[in-house]
Amino acid sequence: MTTKIAIFGVGLIGGSLALCFKGKPGITVVGHAHRPESLKRIEERGVVDAATLSMEEAAADADFIFLCVPVGLLEDYLRKLTELPLKPGCIVTDVGSTKASVAACAAKIARPGVHFIGGHPMAGSERSGVEAASTLLFENAYYVLTPSPDVPEEAYQRLEQLLAYTKAQIVRVDPVLHDEIVGAISHLPHIIAVALVNQVRNYNDGNGLYRMLAAGGFRDITRIASSDPVIWRDILLSNRDVLLHLLKDWNREIEGFITLLEAQNGEGIEAEFQKANQFRSELPERRKGAITSLFDIYIDVPDTPGIIGQIATELGLRHINLSNMQIIESREDVPGVLRLSFRQEGEMERAKAHLQSLGYVVYV
Ligand SMILES: NC(=O)c1ccc[n+]([C@@H]2O[C@H](COP(=O)([O-])OP(=O)(O)OC[C@H]3O[C@@H](n4cnc5c(N)ncnc54)[C@H](O)[C@@H]3O)[C@@H](O)[C@H]2O)c1
Ligand SMILES: O=C(O)C(=O)C[C@]1(C(=O)O)C=C[C@@H](O)C=C1
């Protein structure tokens, strides 16, 4: 018996999910695109078994439907799907970065025999589009599911079982609580990064030295300011109330620093850094838990677009399992350093040998 998975919106997240499922025993992955250009990109990238512009065709007989479109479109897609003849027992899920509004909409239009289970993989990137999709994206990351109490345990477990292909760790959270927490640890940081970049951009208009001298610290804190504007417009508007509260708290934090500086309170400044240092050191690496990386290698990489994808693909093609990768330093015109982590020493050795054979400088 074949399990059909339909993915609506085959971009970074939809494409990465498709790659996790495609080729697994008894699974067929069908991608839906809203316009011919997107269809062509999905087909060229080869992340699905079949792609279509027809919602009906994609949804027909699907056992699982993943909605991976921008948050602002989720409710519209849910409503349209509800009007289609879905397979009895079909599980509809989404990957949106906010969960309360889509959960409320699903509750309103619920229909017997179709189960909606909200989802949110806590992994991503500032890149977007199917070209950035990767099988490794979700590995060891947390994947939040927000089932309503009406969802049968059997349906929840079916979804959990399927998501095992992502190698993510599933965690069940209430949708409203999800939005409060993710507002603080993901949405607020995106706003801060964008505001900071735009502040410096304004100074740079008067003197180009700002951009020229911007180094590791500025890059580290602002990577996410390069995220997709439409995706983030929708996320912020969808979590507006939570964010308005968080921004008031943020203003208080900044006011605190103004007071410390005005009073030249060195001890107070030290105390703030110490508190932050302590909490940050307790974060699981890359917000990933369960399995710790044991074997690391470091390689010099030129600062060129797509280089990390190329390295991951090279290792993937040789079935070398990467547990983590991180850019330690990346400056314009200067090679960056990439840390690759492996769970097995043998995999690290194979990766090292292969990357050296490709001409990379590798350090252990
Ligand atoms: N980017 C991240 O880090 C991240 C992480 C977790 C969850 N999410 C969520 O995943 C979802 C997809 O985000 P992404 O990063 O994959 O974005 P993306 O831009 O890479 O993909 C979005 C997909 O939706 C399609 N789409 C865009 N406009 C459309 C329209 N008008 N009608 C129909 N389809 C349209 C695009 O063709 C594309 O395939 C969002 O809901 C986002 O909140 C993103
Ligand atoms: O790593 C990044 O670039 C991300 O933005 C990923 C990130 C996050 O903020 O952590 C962004 C949005 C998601 O909904 C989940 C994860």
From TrEMBL:
UniProt cross-references to PROSITE patterns, sorted A to Z: ACT, PDH_ADH
Signal peptide: none
Entry annotated with the keyword Transcription regulation: no
Pathway: Amino-acid biosynthesis; L-tyrosine biosynthesis; (4-hydroxyphenyl)pyruvate from prephenate (NAD(+) route): step 1/1
Domain ACT: 296-364
Gene3D superfamilies: 3.30.70.260, 6-phosphogluconate dehydrogenase C-terminal like domain (1.10.3660.10), NAD(P)-binding Rossmann-like Domain (3.40.50.720)
EC number: 1.3.1.12
Uppermost EC category: oxidoreductase
One MF annotation (Gene Ontology) recorded for this entry: prephenate dehydrogenase (NAD+) activity
InterPro entries according to UniProt: 6-PGluconate_DH-like_C_sf, ACT-like_dom_sf, ACT_dom, NAD(P)-bd_dom_sf, PDH_C, PDH_N, Preph/Arog_dehydrog, Prephen_DH
Domain Prephenate/arogenate dehydrogenase: 3-291
Record-stated family: Belongs to the prephenate/arogenate dehydrogenase family.
NCBIfam families linked to this entry: PRK06545.1-5 (NF005107)
Annotated protein name in UniProt: Prephenate dehydrogenase
Source organism: Paenibacillus phoenicis
